[in-house]
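A reminder before we start the practical. When you read a complex entry, don't treat the lines as separate problems. The point of joint prediction is that each chain is placed relative to the others, so the output describes one connected object in space. Small molecules and nucleic acid strands, if listed, are placed in the same frame. In the example below there are two entries. Take a minute to note the order of the lines before looking further.
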Amino acid sequence: MAKLLVVDDEANIRLLYAQELTDEGYEVVTAASALEAVEKFRDGSFDLVILDIKLKNESGIDLLQRIVKERHALPVILCTAFSCYKDDFSAWLADGYVVKSSDMQELKDEIQRVLAKKNRAA
Amino acid sequence: MKAVIMAGGFGTRMQPLTCNLPKPMVPLMNRPIMLHIVELLKKYEITDLVMLLYHQPSVIKNFFRDGADFGVKITYVTPLEDMGTAGAVKYAEKYLDDRFLIISGDLLTDFNLQEVVDFHTSNNALATITLTSVKDPLQFGVVITDKEKRITQFLEKPGWGEVISDTINTGIYVLEPEIFKYIPQGENFDFSQDLFPLLLKNQEGLYGFTVQGYWRDIGNTDSYREAHHDILKGLVNVRIDEPKKDLVGKDLRIGSDARLAETTLMEGTVVVGDNTQVHAGAQIKDSVIGRNCTIEGGVKLNRSVIWDNVYVKKGASVNDCVICNNVSVGQGVVMEEGGVVADDTSIGEESYVKPDVKIWPRKVIESGATVTGNLIWGERWKKSLFEGEMIRGLTNIELTPEFVAKLGCAYGTSLPKGSHVLVGRDATLSSRMLKRSFLGGILSAGVNVRDVKMIPLPVLRYKLRTFGEVGGVHFRQANNDPTSTEIVFLDADGLDFSSSMGKNVERIFYKENFRRAHHMEPGGISELPHVVDFYREGFFRGIDLDLMKRLNSKVVIDFNHSPAGQILPPILTEMGCEVIGLNTYLDEQRGSKRAEEKPESLQQLAKIVVTLEACAGFWVDPTVEEVVLVDETGAIYSPAQLLPLMVALTLRRGWKGAFVAPVSAPSILEQITAEHGCSVRRTKSAERSMIEAAFSPEVVLAGTMGGRFAFPRFQAAFDGMFTIAKTLELAASAGTPLSEVMEDLPKRTFLQGKIPCVWEMKGGVMRKMSEDSLDKEASFIDGIKISVGEDWILVLPDQYNPVIHLVAEAREPRNAQKLMDEYRQKVERWKKELQGATP
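Here is the predicted structure of the whole assembly.
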């Protein structure tokens, strides 16, 4: 069972993602801020991080760079309400990019794709 | 009365039928069109002929000579330049001192010419134009006459709005010699454009006479085929040389010495030329076959025209096509309606020629090929588009803009609608031209393009590893042939296209099963200006910058006019290196250097490295994947030396893990890695196989036998720029000059050679090799590798060329040579045996 870390500053989103992804068979841990996320990914061994780009006053992309620096092999999917960051080269460090939608299917598909890629590499 | 036959046209619209023949000599029922005209004139006792020639006159003269063989007297007139129809007749003025008739040499007609002449005489006309009514007068000159049949108006090629009559000028005129005073000497002058309007204006005796009967202007290949259909249907009365065979209910015309098997199925009207053979089981319907042809059993020929010396093999199906002289049609070939195959062409077995495709002379269609478009300039039509991950072809000859646009459309169709692809190119103008055309095709399938313009292939691959694009395509000039372009296809991970991906695009391309976006939904083009910044950021994460900055290495790099010359120098400078760049400027027209210039470039590079006391020199190939290393002493390392050196440098750096190398790489790799507790993973030589192996996390380096290296901790793709930077870092960390690291490596003799071997024989040679290897220690990862103690020999068939490679390695040079010689002789012997076995 893959273990996912969901980083989002909106409580309802964290709740929704946790429920939907748990139903899919994943073990889900959530974090509300960049600081909390860093503490959690340092403590636990995750298979994937799902990261919002706008975390109140913090930047998800800065956090992404930190994750890549510390855990190069840990895949990250950016999950945001904006599509414009797709052309921001800092965001290309991520392994996936999903524009938030009420339909969770795209996110679920992307998680499957990224995990499969990671497993293939292993 | 004399007649002038106009036989000077180029027949441009009739190509490729007229590539080797002037249009009047194109055969119609196995005899030149013009001979039918001569027969018609003879029928009306016009036997004194003036032939006006211009294009390829000798072909016509050699056929008709003085006309005696055909019962006529011929005078040839060949104007020195194209003077128009009337202008050309003016050249023949001295032979035309009495009333004369003019007729084109490329008409099919059975008009009663006597009626025209009688009309002309009774009206005391200066000029009479023969008229006829046609269904579609748009492409002809419409003529209006009054009650007395005097011409009152001309309309040259009218639009439908202008059509006030369906009566047209047939190009058959009766003229009085006084007409010459209206035709200026030495000027381009046309009958319908200039002369007749002038006569009309001067109110001269210009008449039009409408004739009943068959008339067709054989102007293009469709009209040529239709002319045959009309003759076979009996719509026009022309002479057929082959005698009618007396069989009830059949209309067969069989030439002398022709042999027809009894079980041949003939339907409709069939003409078989002299000395032609039709084997048992062929089915022929409404067709004309020329002389000296062979039609094998199971062939289906329908409404087709075959010229002379044509061989149609078993099971071929030819439907409403024209096949010119000296053509071979392979077994099982299918040719659809409207196809034209010009002289001296060979169509490989099981090929498929789509409807209306025209193949120009001297082409070779490979077996199993699907020919979808006219083949005009290139010599070959390949069976498969892809050679591994790429499509390669002669720029603007095989890879034309229209071909590439279609390819783009096929590629776009293979991808999800609305997805994005990354497209880049090298510095050459031809790559830019073809890429632009390709983009149009992708967009038409509703797929978006991120255009990264001029970029090295490794950078494109690096971006592809991230999200956003489902694939990538790179256009570049072929390294070994500047006249060719290579289109490299990459998957969503930046890996080379797999064969199944290529097959998918190929299938769509050949079936033309394209997805066309609705008018509001074509793809869009956007740019990604920061791709190089992203690459540079990752690049620095993969290098020990502190170590490099401390050492301040000096390096000479021949960038070979590749885009790497724009990207790498600032990166290396930032790393603390002093870079002396050679050939860094981009030359769009020239492209990269030719392969044969490489040794000279390497010698120059070696000299400069020594003179400037640099720690190393590198030559980068135009794809920016391959490098050649020159050490500080000016020694140029071959790929067989470079790979062990790179492995040794990596091991000295203390990296632990696995090394990926092809089966053909030297075995000292195992020796030196084992000493450090590391391993070697042998793969096939195909680069995709190596890179797939390199994806594994424990792999630290993958290296080919062609100077290509991948460092998976940066990116699992061959990257010449990163190889240079990493080599400098590893050399700096080793603390000893490169030549000394090389000196420390175990010494083995490594030999490589190749033997030409035709495609059909490769399999047989490898079967014999495997039989020969039964009692030996053999490995079958890629080709067959035989180990003899510590020594080995590899026999490897080339994937894309008719060649078998031999690679031998041994401790003693003598033994390596002995292995090479032994297996070279074996392969040559097997080839001879296989040749003997071929029927």
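Discuss with your neighbour: DSSP finds four helices and seven strands in chain A. What might explain this?
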